[in-house]
Structures are given as structure tokens and as C-alpha cells.
Fold each of these.
Amino acid sequence: MLTFLRLAHIILISLRYRLDELVLSSIQHPWAHGLLKVVCLGHRPRRPRGERLRLALESLGPIFVKFGQVLSTRRDLVPQDLADELARLQDRVPPFPSEIAEAIIEEALGDSPHRLFAHFERTPVASASIAQVHFAVLHDGREVAVKVLRPEMREAIEKDLMLLRAAAGLVERLGPDGRRLKPREVVAEFDKYLHDELDLVREAANCSQLRRNFGLGTGREHLLQVPEVVWELCATQVFTMERMRGIPVSQVDRLRAAGVDIPLLARRGVEIFFMQVFTDGFFHADMHPGNIYVSDNPETLGRYIAMDFGIVGSLSEFDKNYLAQNFLAFFRRDYRRVAQLHIESGWVPAQTREEELEGAVRAVCEPYFDRPLSEISLGQVLLRLFQTSRRFNVEIQPQLVLLQKTLLNVEGMGRELDPSLDLWQTAKPFLEKWMHQRIGLQGLRQRLDQEAGQWAQMLPQIPRLVYTRLSLPDHSAAMRADLERLCRVQNHTNRLLTVLCGILAVALGVAVWALTRG
């Protein structure tokens, strides 16, 4: 009954914001155009379709808001006007009662927050679609932030996901355009993101890994601060971390007043991103201004502070190498190499003509190179390439879509800090150095160091294995004799079958002759 009521509510909201017109106008079929004329009754909606879709999702609640946010990252599938509007979706959600938050903490950690902490602030400081945050103080005096999952989120998500899967199946059956949008794949991707965010232990582990990557002794501690996880106060529904203080990265005037070097801050943001992607293969994938702060502490002034680790991306060695070579080929205008990389990766059908793909890539990239480098958006170039890839049936990998979304966030944040930021010039030396380290003697030495542990275990065994192998009796003569015997048997069998077939043919001929004579 509740599912039916939810479905009825969704239908009413869809009709209110004329999403029926949005769906029908996107279907390239005569009956769809005829039906569109009927539903429009001679007049079109006054608001743009992207705005109507955004308002509808906001009206449907936090799960649909989250879905719209994920959909906005799939610019390889969604038209640009819709993606731009969906990117404006905000996670501002009213907080749930403090009594419920305290009950969730007690159930998850086994005791009341007023006993677990020396002080626990009942009023939340932030509230989003998945969780809300309370400040607290530990008994040893450390200040912490306690993230609490919203109640009954899993049940609400499963109900809405069931409806989204049904809608995706319907859209997929509408025709080729519906299948091209891959609605089932998008909903499955959304499902994964949501369930990852519902497990706060996973988020705590992401935070811990990122902190280790930029911790003391790494040579990067001056770039990024990541809160320490208080593991004894973490559970699936509760995540307790060190409280971080700073200025939101979007408040440029406050940063400048605090004495932060803004151009240096913008360049360091790009460096941090490329370090995470190409050195670590593990990157914070939700780097919008709301999740990034800058320290105003005199000891760590100008250092980035990362928050919210629910969405992270990871890349294999193959992905990193592929991306680095692609970026360097762009910088050098080597479009043939870009086409070759797409074909070599297996993401383009094998029958794709290299020169045709090269021409398409050139048409995307060449207009950008006629502008000053500071005006070129690397994220937009990547976005245009994804859009162009549709006609070549390129399978866009999920980790690359997440990377493209993060790159757009980083680039936008950098340009907001410093409009003259030249992301290409900032990135190119880093990528060239990274490629040199991988391909040159230093890269060989690093790989040898990585494999040394395995070799240390295997090398002492090699003499014994060689001796054992050489000590085995030589069965080659017996095997050869067996094979010759099998061949003789097979030849004999073939001759018998030939004779039998001949006899059957003669008998059949005689029978036919006898019948015709009779």
C-alpha cells in the first residue's frame, strides 16, 4: 500500500512539472510526437526542461536529489542542459530530531552519547540527505565531529530504488534512444553509490587511507589535512572523526584576509588532485566547495582540509597509464595517439577505423588550442570527448566518469580561486615527470623494489624445482609409443567406417534397383 501511495505521489509530481513532455520530446518516433501534441494541448511548459526536472527531484525527496546528482555526472549520457541544471541540486535537508540521533548512537556504540563523550552537542551543525553531524568532546579533551546516519534510510532507499529500476526498464523499452541512455546501468551505479554511503565504516576507512597518503613522512603533509578517525567510536551508522577548523574554500575574501596565498592555493589544489589520481590511484571524488576547507591556523595556514569521504574513486595501473598517456597526447596535439589509445584499451569496437576516430578527436580538441591556455577547460575537453564517443560506441568506464566529474569540480574550484589559473601548464610537468618515473630507470627500480618480496620467497626454491623437474623419469618415448598406437587404432577405425559406408551404399543401390524392377 505504501509503495502504491509513493508511486502515486511520484506520478503527481511528474505531471505537475510536466516531465511527461520531457520524456516524449526525447523519443524519436512518430507516435511519440503525436502523443506529445495531445498532452501539450497546444502550449508548451513555460520553464526550461532542466529546471522542471530539478524542481521535481527536489520535491520527491533526498533519494531523488541524490539520484539527480549522480545523473549530472553522466554527461556522456545526459544532454548538457539537463546535466548543468542537475548539477545545481543541493543536499540541504532538515535535520532529524536529536533524540533519534542519540538513540542511533546508543544502539550502534552500546552506550549513551552523554557517557561516551565528555560533551555532546545535541543540535546538529550540518544535515544532508544521508546523515547529519554533531560536534562533541572526548574524555581526553579532543574535539570530534560525530556523523550519524539518518533513521530508516536503507528501507526508504530500497523502496525508491525498486521504483527507479521499474522506470529504467520502461525507458529502455521505449526504443533505441532509451537503450542508448543505459537507464538500468545508471540506476545500478546509483545503487552502488548509495549503499557505499550508507556504510559509515567504509567512509571511515576511506578517510583513514587518504590521511595515510598525505600523512607525516610522505613529503605531502604541507598540502592536505585529513581528520583522524576515532575507530573505537565508529560503526555502520556512526562515524567519529577529529574536528577540523578552517575557512570554506569558496569564501575567497576571508581566505585573502587571513593571509592565504590564493594563486598558490589554486595550483596546490591541482597538484593534490593529480597526486591522488596518478601516484596513489585513490582520489576523493566529491571535491565540491562544501567538502573542502582551508586552514587559517598560523601553523598550517593555507593547507587544504578534506571533508566527507563517502565517495572515492580508485584506478588500476592500466587506468593510470592510459589516462596519463591520453593527457600528454592532448598537450602535444597528437590526436592519432589518442585514437590508438582508445582502440588499444578495448573500449572502442575492434572494427573502428583509427583515422576516423582521430578526425573526431581533432574536431573536439583543436578549437580549444586556438585560445589562450588559461581559458581552456581540461574538464570540458574531456566532457566533449565523452559526448563524441557516443557515435563510436565507446564504453565509458565508471571510474573515468567519476574522475571526469572530480576534474570538473577541481578545475571550477581552482578557477574560482584564481581566474588566471592555467590548469594545463600546472598539470603537464607533473604528468611528464610521472611518465618519466614509470618508464625510466627510476620506474624500473621502483617496480623491482615492489617485486623483491615475492622474488625473495621464490628464488631459493628455484634450484630445488629445477632439480626435481630434471630428476623426473623421461616418459617421452612411452608417450610417443602411445600416440603412435592411438594413431594406428584411429586409422583402422577410419578404414572400417569407410568399408561399412561402402557396403551400405551398395545395399541401398541394390534395394532401389529391386524396387524399380518390381
Note: The chain has a mean pLDDT of 79.
Amino acid sequence: MNENIINRQVIRMHPTDNVLVALTDLEKDTAVEFENQVYTLQDKIKAKHKFYTSDLDAGAEIIMYGVLIGKVQASVKKGCLMTTENLKHAAEPYGYRGVSYHWQAPDVSKYSHTTFNGYYQNDGQVGTANYWLFIPTVFCENRNLDVIKEALHNQLGYAVSDKYLRYTQDLLTAFQNGQSLDSVNISLTPSANINRVFKNVDGIKFLNHQGGCGGTRQDAATLSALLASYANHPNVGGITVLSLGCQHLQVQQLINDIKDQNPQFDKPLYIFEQQESESEEQLIAHSIKQTFEGLIQINQKQRKPAPLSKLTIGVKCGGSDGFSGVSANPAVGYVADLLVALGGKVLLAEFPELCGVEQNLIDRCVNEAIAQKFINLMQSYDELAHKVGSGFYMNPSPGNIKDGLITDAMKSAGAAKKGGTAPVVDVLDYTESATKPGLSLVCTPGNDVEATTGKAAAGATLILFTTGLGTPTGNPVCPVIKVATNAILAKKMSDIIDIDCGPVISGEKTIEEMGEAIFEYCINAASGIIIPKAVQLNQDDFIPWKRGVSL
């Protein structure tokens, strides 16, 4: 049992904190006893929200997770609810201090002989899936990709919309027979058997986007590097590229980027340019035929045992709530520590959601060059946001605030828990690939899809995505595992949630026990034994970041 939580109404996240988190709804005038102190609540405190532990004057600093998260705007009383009216974002300044960081790695002896069954690439990388990938060099080809997707998914057994097609057919039949639509039975049960022709091909994926032309040449160059990263991804077995011909992002630039990133690239790569084709019909027909031949080729791949050090897990949060930093994020952070201790890679991104914990991360960097790269990326990103009248402090969404995340520093302090406690071995700019075992920081926005898009580009072969409010986000080439912060969400949105961290809130499991359960799930998902909900539903979200202001 978790002695810090069980049978308690509140929790303090760090010994230096001057706020407490409600674990359940607490009524006004309730006397809450915690650590030999009694707090009479001045307001109703809903679960996930916080209250102050002492009388404070305007300007007082508020500490949570052991870091500054804001300053009081007007005098508040002990037991008063924290709100956006009485607390505003504040964060400590940061800089390189030359701290010698000593990490106590968790005991991973129980996993010393554990493997996962993955797909080996000829360059030594190991994927957790085997996908065929369609890449358009320009948005003009999106319609052609949609036509190809419908044909291949329906005929080869990758479509997941059959239940909705049957429901629509039932509505049509009722309408044609003069019956009330209310008489149609709403049965959205999917087909019992999905007859996939290519058993060792986990999916056919499509990177529809809105770029490639019309923007700046720099935008096209960034997009090319991003698409090249996806072509080189360990979970991708082969690629079909569709190009118009006249766009900024030329096919040769994409090929150059693919080979610059990976000189050993040898996957099947088929290229079709519409302005060189006799007709759209010919373009689509030829690309389908050659892709079919490629599918036959990569279907010969078999899963084989691989050490856990070959895993790369990206950690992400979205639709966060006041329990994110209490349950799911720390549990995922323990997974991160386990994998780092086993020689694997962990990717922590979302730079706007590291605001306020920069010093902790800087102090964990293994050398000054890596720390300085992080500082430079954070400062330039924040300066860009301020130039257009924004800033990291504006990151929390209305949903975040409603469920207890009052300032960006508070949100960030809880979000950073996903990265665990290991040293930071590298800092990656957008589209750069992770090459070093250990924890790397990846520069992306906090935006769910832009962040997962960038995390997959850095090489994540699984993504652990924590959520307190619920989100259907997925990724085309990297299986996304949804981790709920609370049992209510896990039950309400069971169709998209894979793992429930509610037992941490109830005290049934410790952070370490929950983390080990998540890690076991990851091993099974990496082996294809468990298929995460986002993969089952083809939630293939892909949004390139154009390096503008996106929080």
C-alpha cells in the first residue's frame, strides 16, 4: 500500500511545499488533519485542486513539487482554494551551475534476462511494429493518398470503420422503408475477425500534411527532415512517396535527407511523381501495384527476441489534470528510470511544459555543452513566444485549469515527472534522432500531436501518453499507450484508455508498483502481444511543427 496516500484526504508532493492536493472532494469548513496539522477549509476543494497551508500576503512564493510555481496576487488564508485569481505563474531563473549529479538507479535485476519480440532492421535498430508508410512531399497529393488508403485498407484488412458502415447502411435501409431512424439499433460492435492478408505487416500508414509548398523554403527543409526521420524509423519496413513535381520540397531533397540521416538505408522505397505520369489513374494504379509488391517483401519479416535496451520510449502528457503529477506521470517516470537502467532510450519533450523545472534538468545534464543547448533552445523558444504577445505562462488550457492545473510552472513540474530522475545524456532539436542510451530532452511544442509527431521523429518506438481528461491522440508509426491518471476517466473512456493509474490515488499501489505494471504492458505491446487502443482505432495523428509559436 502507498502510505503517503491511503486513507488520506490530501497529499503534499514535496516536503517544502506550502500547498496540499485534495485526493477527494472536500466541503467548506471541513477540518483536514495532515502531518499533525489541522486545516479548516475556507472553500470547497474539489479533488485534484489545491489549498494553501498558511496565511499568505500578496507576493508570497508558492512552492509545489519543491519548486516555485507562482506568486500570490492578494492575501489568502490558510485553507483557501488556489485559483487563477489569487495565484499567477512564476518560475525561478536558471543557468548552468556545474552540479555533479549522482543518480541512484532502480534495481532492474528482475529484468536482466527479459526480452521483447521486435522487428530487426539491417542497420541494427529494432522496431516494435512493421508498417508500410506512404509519404506525400506536398499537400497536393493528400487526395490521392486518401483514395489509395481506402483501397488498401478495405481490401487488405486494415480498415476499422466497418461497424460505422453497417450502422449507416441500417439508417439508409430504414429511411428507404419509411421507418423512423430511432428504430435503428445502435450496435457498433466491430467485426469478429479482421482478415489481414499480410500477417506480419502491422499496418499501412499515411502521413497526410499541409506542407511542402507555399510556405518558406525553411519550412520545406524542416518538413523534409521530419519525413526522412519517419522513413528511417525502426517501425517502418517500406515507403511509397507521392510527389506532384513542382513543389518546394523536391523528391531529391527528401532522398538526400533520408541517406544523410542513415547512410545504411536499404528499405524498399518507391517514388511516383504526378506531373511525370500519364494520368492520375495511372499514378494511383502503379503506386498501389508496386506497394503491393513491397508488402509481399516486408511480410517476410518475423518478430525475434531483442534486449530491452533496444526500446526507445517517448513520454507525453495531454488533457492533463490535477492528478497527472500525482499518479500517472510519476509512475511513467519510474518506467523511464527502469528503461534507462537497462540501457534503453527515453525521450522527454514538450519544452513549454518544462518551464519552472529548467534548473533541475540543467543540473542533471551530463556536461555543460548539453546543458547549454537546452538553455539556448528554451530561451529562444520563449523569446519567440513573447515576440507575438504570448509566453510559456499561457500554456495551460481551460480544461487543465478547470481540473486543478493553475499555472504553467505547476503543470510543468508535474509533467516533468514523466522523465524520471536519470541524468540527461542529450538534448535534441526538432527532427534530430536519439542516438545515446539514457534520457534525452526533445524540443517540441506541448501540443499533443505536434509533440508526438516530433517524438516519433526522434526515434520513439513506443509512446506512453498520460491523460487526466482523456484524448484520442495516436501516431502513424509509433504505438501510443494511453495511461489514465484516475479511475473515473479509465472507466468513462475505456475505449481509448489502456492503463488505469487510479490505484495510486486510492492507495492500492505505490508509484513503483504501478510503474512496473506499466513497464510489463510496454514489453507486451512492443512484442505485439497487446495492441494499444490508439493502434486498434487507427488514430494516426500527424502534424509537422513549422517552428512557429505553438505551446
Note: The chain has a mean pLDDT of 94.
Amino acid sequence: MNVISQEQPAFFLGIDTGGTYTDAVLWSEATGVAAKAKALTTRHDLAVGISGAVDAVLDKAGVDPTAVKLVSMSTTLATNALVEGQGGRVALVMIGFSEADLARDGLQRALGTDPVIFCPGGHDVHGNAQPLDLGALEEALPQLAGSVSGFAVCAYFATRNPAHELAARTLIRERTGLPVTASHELSAKLGGPRRALTTLFNARLISMIDRLAAATEGFLEKRGIAAPLMVVRGDGALVSAAFARQRPIETILSGPAASLVGARHMTGLDDAVVSDIGGTTTDVAVLDGGRPRLDPEGATVGGFRTMVEAVAMRTFGLGGDSEISLEDGGLTPRILLGPRRLVPLALAGMAHADVVIPELERQLRAPNPGRMDGRFALRTGVPDRLAAGLTGPEAKLFGTITATPQPLDRLLASTAQNATLARLVTRGLVHVLGFTPSDAAHTLGRQANWNRDAARLGAELFARRRDGRGQPIAKSPEAISERVLAALTRFSAEVILETAFAEDGLDGAATVAHALVQRAVDGHDGIARLTVALDRPVIGLGASAPLHYAGLPPLVGNSCLVPDDTDVANALGAVVGQVRVSAEARVSQPKEGLFRISAGDLVKDFLDEDEALAAAEAEIRRLVAGKAGAAGTDTAEITMDRDIKSATVEGQRTFIEAILVATASGRPRIAA
């Protein structure tokens, strides 16, 4: 490596760990982008992909690792996990709730087969306690300690008084030593079931983000990079890795949020629709006046509305590695994409060509196409402890799956095992390999970084599938590949338009599905000529954006700009952000003349309104200053926002409630 002189500027290293690739970019205020590089994300050992990208970028720039003064990372791992329904098995503890509450906000669907324990307790709207009984939790802990990876605790009105959550958390930690997430730590908003949903997701993601942070920190230490490690949150702000480890749910939409910062930095556009296509998802958001629109109601990912404040990003299970399937019924079935991600055959052919290619050739020699043709399974390489709690059939099938791809037509003994395999995939224990848009691109020679032979064999197998007339759906691997890529561009246009309609206050999905909009997108002429067009350009991000978005402008009625560094927009955005955290206090009046503040773990009564407001402000200033330090900045500026609600009846003012929010922001601390 050629090392530059000792007078080199301070460099910031940006890393984005995506579902398929890990990107790295080296940037400084003096030089801008000094170098960029990519490596495959290695899910079994994230450090391998990180080291490949970072070593390459340092070598390209000729920079001594000691010149790196800050490392900032964005990631789509948490987003992808929620979209694909993955994560550790956790126990949900509901205090003061009933089983009927599981039916609200998708909580039962999100819970799946994970255990839930109900305990009496909780508080009322003013923070007054109901009798607490943790007997059911105490009885369940010995069994749960060996079958879950963590706990999520949500108590009724814990945002007004967290005492019962704190009691449950203490008990769980003392008896099991496992990670515990309490709902009041994540949100101060009311809405117990949705707060429980957010807490459940946070608990599931802890081990995943912990592995990512540990892998990154271990690599940096080996390379002699003694710089703070920051992580991008879903609202675009930076926080320390230690902060993110405790609140991994806040990293959902981390990658997309960083990409918005990168898009604005690269194009200078203040108003645009930003569409970031990756291997697993497409993330679409809107820039207004140079700033991303935020979703005050909480981020929606994988069909679930959380309480995490993030960019108003809509995430769709659509990407270069999306599962390809055929629409049921009809003489000419449509090609469908996603939402599940498959490992592309071209990628599997890089490491396992000796297995994948002969098996694909064997399936092609069969006289008739099979339902499982072109599909393989292999273990993901996650730690064995994350396989706790498998059912008998799941454990039996998991025991037969190895780290080498196995064709499904030989692995699965019955159709019923398809559902068992799907559950193992959901748990993040197994990958399914198959034909994807990335394989279609390799077949056509429009992508050339993986094994084209494996891709083309997969395309040939898929083309043999039958339509409603019993005929092959395509005449050649190239023909089906063209259809797949055209479908991906078309679906990309639809998700962009869906986002635009939703931002305009309409039902985005229903509006796009309407026959008139479909007619306009297709460009069909008739007596009534219809068009649909965005009022601003599209910024296309992602390594495959130049390929998949080339045909986008006529479908969305506006231009599409793909920046030169679009392939590392997330990594670039990760290094130009600021630390930003907030704390909230609420002052209520349980009875006339009594003012109760609730801020963090503090619940305290005052007899004077002004005294209560002053105490609340002092407390959240203290809390937010501490959070800012933990999040990674020593230069935070604190701003206050007060919302005091009162009523005047017959000339007499009556205090109702006050909400105080303190926000601290500043640049992250860097190494000396």
C-alpha cells in the first residue's frame, strides 16, 4: 500500500452493510470521496464482508488506517429482517393487558409462535398503579431461559409510570441474564399494543445488531483504526454503536435514511422522489426543501406500523434478489416478484459451482419441469443457540440441511415440508437459493460479477414452467430474463407511484391498482387519453439502479437521475450526518391542584404548575444531555419545545396537560 504523507487530512470511513453487498467509502471535508469499494455481505460472519470492503477502500486511497478519525455505518439488516419476518425467538411480557389486546395493531401476527406471558398490573392514565403480580412470569422463567434469546416487556400506561416494567426487567435479568427491552425506553407515545409490537421487534433484533457491531469493532481493532463507531438511525441521525446495541429497532430504515442524506449530497436536488433498490428491498421516500419527510406516526416496515420515528420511507419487498413466481390462474400468467429474498443462483455458483451446476443440469435432463426445479437450501451459519425452540419437524429438517446447497427436490420428502422449510427461513436459520432478477441480468450479460453459467441454467429451468395452456412460459432463457427485468422496472414504477399517492393523502396501493392508473402507466391510447406524472424527478440509488431504472421515465412521467456514486450512497450518507436525540416529559393534573411529571424513570408530584414545568424541563435537559453523550457527541446543542394545553371556562384558566421535548444535536466526536 502506498501511504500518503503525515500531513494527510482526517478521513471519515462510511460503511453500509446491506443484504447482498457491504459498501465502503472514504471521505474527508478536504477531498470529498477519496475512494469507494464493495464486497459481498457475508451473513455467517459479517466481519469478512466488512474487511473486504474496507481493506479495498483504504488500499485504493493509499490512506494509513490511523488517518481514519470516525467510522459511521448504516445497515439494512434490521429492515430486511422485519420484511422477511426474521429475528431471534423472544418472550413478550404483557403487564395489565388481556389476550384481546393481541388482536390490535398486528401484534398477534407479529408474535407468531413466540411465547407471551400476561401479568396483572399496569397504571392508569395519571400513573397510579394497579396491583402487580409477576407470579406467572416467575413461574415461566426457568423454561424460557433456555428457549428464547431475549425478552420484551410492555406494561399498561408505562409511558406515564414505568415502575412495573422496571420490576419485571429486574426479575428477568436476575433469573436469566438475557437481554430485556422495556417499552418505555423506546417510546413515550400512548398505544400499548403498538408499543408492545415495537418492543417485540427491538428484542428480536438485538442479537443481529450486536453481531454486526462486534464484527465491525473487531475488524477496526485489527486494522489499527482507533476511531469511534457510529450507526445511522432510521431518521438519518447518528448514534454510537453502544447506543444502537440497546435500541436496534431504531436502526430500521437506517440504510435508506443514510441514502437520502447521500442523495441530497450528490445531486444537490432539494425536491425529488428517492428510490433505493437493493438486493432485498426497494425503499422510496420524498425530499422536500432539501430535507426528508419524516413519519410522525412511526415507521412502517413489512406491513407493521412501529413507534420508531423515521423518514417517511416506504419499504417494498422488491429487489435484485427477489423471489420470482408466477401468478396463479390465467392462460398467460404474470411474473410476480418478492417479497422474499432468495440467494441468486449466480451468487451460489461462485462458491458452490461444483454442486449447483450439476444439480441444475440434472433437473434440465428430466422430461418434465418439476415444482422445485432450480431451488436449493443451505444453512445461514448463525450460532446454534438461535435455533432454540424448534418444533420436532423443524428440528428434524434443520438437522438434514448443511452448509452446502442441497436441491429441494431431493431434500424435501413431502409437500408439507415446504411449510416447515419456510419457518426455518423465517427464523433466519436457512437460506433458499433460486432464480432471481440478478440471475436474469447475468443471463443477458448486463451483470457480470457472479457465475453466469449457474444463472443461465436457472433461467432455462424457469422458462420451462407451464402456462394455462400447458405450454412453456418462454422460448429461451434470454426471453424469460427479458420479461423478468421488464417486470422489475414496471414494479419499481408502481412502488414509486404508490409512495407519491400515499404522500398526497390517498390509499397508495389501491390507487396504483386502479384500472385507470394501470392504463396510464401502460401508455394505452384511447378516446380518453390518460397520463400519470410525478411533479419532481426521481433519484435512483443502488448498484443496480442504472440497469433497472433505465426504462423508468416514461412510466413515471418525469426524469430519473442516477448519480455517479449511486452504488455507495448509503455509505456516503453515513459520514455526513449529525447526532440527534430527544427526551420527552409529560405534566398532567391527576386532581385539581396536583401536577405530576413523568420523565424517563422519574414520576414526581408538585403543588405548583410553574414549579412542575421547571422541574420537568430540568429533568429532560439532564436526560437528553446524557443521551447525547451516550449517542456519541460532546458538542450537543439543546433546544426545547413546550406544548401546554389548557382551557378557559367562565374566565377561569384550567391546566390540562403539558408535553415538553428536549432535542440535542451535534457532530459526532472523532478520534484525536
Note: Residues 1-6 have pLDDT under 50 and may be disordered.
